[in-house]
Amino acid sequence: MNKKRLILGVIIIAAFGVFGLTAFQHALTPYVTFVEAAAKGGTAQVSGTVDKATARHDAARGVFTFELTDRSGTTMVVEYSGAPPANFDDAESVVAVGSIDGSSNVFRAKKLLVKCPSKYQAG
Q1: In whole angstroms, what separates CA 43 from the centre of its chain?
Q2: What is the DSSP letter of 120?
Q3: What does pTM read for this prediction?
Q4: Cα gap 31→97, rounded to integer Å
C-alpha cells in the first residue's frame, strides 16, 4: 500500500509540474515588432515611441487611439478601449499588449504600459 501511495504522489506532483510549466509558457508574451506580431498572430507586446500629436481620446466611443513606432521603424495605429493612462503625456515609450486586426491594419491593445522618465535620473 505504501508503494502505491508513493507512485500516486509522484504522478500528482508531475502532473502539477507539467500544468504549471504549460500555464507559464502560455502567459509569456514576448516583445516583438508590428511585422512579427502580424506574422505570429495572437497576442503580442509591441514597444515603441508615441507620436503624441496623433493621440486622440473619443469619450463617446470610449476609445483612445495613437500612432506607435516600433523598434524597427514601423508605425501603426494603436486602438485602446478605455481612457489613456494618467501618465501617458510624460511617457518616454509605450508597450501595447494586444493583437493586430488584419481587416483594418490596426493594433487593438488590451493593455497599455507606459515608461516615464525616472525622477531619480540626473537632469
Answers
A1: 7
A2: T
A3: 0.72
A4: 9
How far, CA to CA in Å, does 7 sit from each of 1, 13, 17, 94, 113? Answer: 10, 10, 15, 50, 46
Q: Give the domain range for residue 79.
A: 34-115
* Number of structural domains found in the chain: 2
- Is residue 122 a part of any domain in this protein? no
Show the cell assigned to 123: 537632469
Number of CB atoms found within 10 A of residue 81's CB: 12
* Share in percent of the chain as helix, strand, coil (round to 5): 30, 40, 30
pLDDT digits (tens, 9 = 90+) for 17-76: 888 887 776 666 678 899 888 888 888 899 999 998 999 999 889 999 999 999 999 999
Residue 12 falls inside a structural domain: yes
> How many CA atoms does the CB half-sphere of 27 hold within 13 Å?
6
Report CA torsion sign: 49, 28, 83, 61. Answer: positive
